[in-house]
Amino acid sequence: MHKKIMGLFIPFISILIISFNHSNVISAELGLPSTIEIKNRPPDYTNWSGAEKKVWDAISSGKPAIFDKPYLVMNIERQKAQSLRSAFLSKILCDEKICKLIPHNGVQIECAIVNGELDLRNAGLNHMIRFESCIFRKNIQMGGVVTPHGISLKKSSVEGDLFLTDAEIGGSLNLDGGTFCALNARNLKVDGTLSMQRANFRCRSELTLDIISDRYPSIDLLGASIGGQLNMEGAWFMEEVRMPGIQVNGQMSSENAKFDDGLFMPGSIVDRRLCLKNIRGAKKIFMQGVQVKNRVDLDEAKITGVLDMQGMDISNRLFMDDLTVSGDLLLKNSKIDNCLSMKRADIAGQSDFQGLNVKGDVIMQKGRFNSVNLTTGQIEGLLNLSTSGFSGKVVAYGLYVKNTLQIEDATFSDILHMQRSKVAGLVDLRRSEFRNKVSFKGAEVDGDFYLDDAKFNEELDMLGVRINGNAIINQGEFKKGILLQLGRITSVDYKGANMSRMDLKGTYVDTIIARVKNSRELPQKMELRGFTYDIFLGEYTGQEEKKEEFFQNWLRRIEAFAPQPYEQCAKALREAGSPEKANAVLYAAKERAREEAWVSNKKRWLGLSILKVTIGYGLGVRYFLALLWIAVFVLIGTLVSYKSSAKEVLETKGYTRWSHYFFYSLDMLLPLIKLRDQTEKIELPDRPRRYFYFHKLAGWLLLSFVLAGLAGITQM
């Protein structure tokens, strides 16, 4: 009998054991204790699906509701076992009575599948919300949500849009690793951190091919306010990211992020660092008027379009090392309170830095640039363009550089325009190559100006330049010369160059020093009219040419002869205690004038030739040529008076010796001076008399030449 009774109960007991074990397995999956009885069940509990009941049992017990990862669940039945209705979630999150049953640690659901649009608009959420690694089949509507806690959608996939317009989140908003169509969060307020690390924001068209609509942005954060950090590191945005007027009280970082379209954040404020390091693919980045109260990092960023940073206000450094921009880089009227670094940058479009104000250095070394506009820029440190290449125009009209302008080993394929710029330090163009025109017209440099080994294919225009240091030219190449008219330079140190022409018309230099190996290292042609200086030191350092002929060779290169350059050189040499060199220079001037006169004015050529052969232009020891001519004429007159018919007449007057005839000839030659009163009263025969007429005329001419030389008339 007992055996029959036990046989009837054994199947029933087995069913109870299996059910009990199955309940324990589910409870273990959801992190629940192994018990059948669950307290705090709301009235709607009986209407919920099994998955929803299990979620509520976990949440009400203060445990996370965790399902298998959705991508591991291929069985449809198992997917249903972890699928939740959006209405269920709205109920437990918004119903006041149900919310009171939720423990203080809030709602945490992992790996669930949510069907339908989750509508939490304008809800007041009193608990921390965590939907992590979940799948949302449609939109999440959280516009106007107010919560003192945080919200997490970490690693979740939202196949629709996430709406957070006008939401107020007292904690942080975590979207790390998630996948979204778009985030619409205009006027969002987050007191903590907004994090989107490694999140993907896909194009709407990828998921809703049947909908033809206007273009949507990946993110719209217009007017949003973030109390902590805005973290977008490693994220991927397939459409525009719009953040105009956003306020970030902490750091904003998009390091390693990918922007398939653009980033728009004009008028935004970032209280700490703005990091866009190594961002990729952006067609355009607009940051006009952005205020950053710390540094900005764009190192290694790759922008496929325009980078617009006009009017930015950066309180610290701006790093753009290894930056690549396929379009324009615009920094017009921006303000940087520290340095700007663009080492190894590659800018394919125009770099517009007009009106840029930088309190520190601007470093653009080893970069590749197209055209650069630095007009009216203000740089309180140095400007370093060394070892960079510029394929377009570089315009820096009115640029101010408080320290050094360093352009060593650079290459300029188009014009370099530095008109009316001011450099408070030195300018260094050593070893750079300029393939087009270079202009420093009206520029002012307080330090030295180095042109060593520089190469200029076109004319170097330095009209009206002011250099308060040394202008140093050493072995450069100036194919079309230097225009240095109307300038003022403290000193010029010329050490030789391959120079076609140097124009120093109207320029003043305190000291000019020229030391070259030979005359081939001097400028081939020069314009020196009006060029003045106080000291001129010049010499040959080689052995090929005579050192004393340096100044004559220097001046011989004057294109159109004018006496002033020679006179200026002679004046400087005489004041330096070298009268012989000064006279040699003036003599060279007369020789050059005589050569010019042979072509243009034969009468002047004749006059100069007479001055040359008679008194050596009245310069130095060449005056003694007049004595030689006097001796010649006296000797000729002696021979004429002694050998001709004049001898008979003179013997009757007591001239019997050679000395008598000599003094007679001398007395006839010297005007204004009479050795014997009767000399001119002696009547000579016709032929000797005619000669002595010429003899007396030669004396008057020699006297006039000597007096003119003494009076300086021959130097005019």
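Next protein, fold it too.
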Amino acid sequence: MAASKGWKADEPHSRADRRRLLGKCGDECFLDPANGKYPICGDDCAVDCAGLAAARTRAAQYGHTQIKNEAIARALRTGCAWAAAVKAQAKPASAAPKKKKQPAKARAASKSVKKSAKARPATKSVKKSAKKTKSVRRRRA
């Protein structure tokens, strides 16, 4: 294992490398073993914290939330230093502060401000359509 290069040097690069790793080490070295995706072990069949971090990042990029959460859970069980920091940053949805309602007078005032902000001068297309309706009215009369 090359410690200076990190996970990039240790990861199985090709499909053949992944098949060999799956045959040698088993399903525990992949977060998605059925598809041979998200390898997390090096050549020594030991779970690598850098492999878990790479799998978590890639799963998040592809929107695979379940795999991302599994990577974090395995990292916590393995004792990876980055996993504790990630868990500490994650806030439960219920802990989000709720918005306080404004008093009725304040809501009414903000609505009037919003309406006045919407009143803008007519655009060219509106002006043209107004001219067309005037000319149509003149012809009918």
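About the second fold: Residues 25 and 45 are 5 Å apart (CA to CA).
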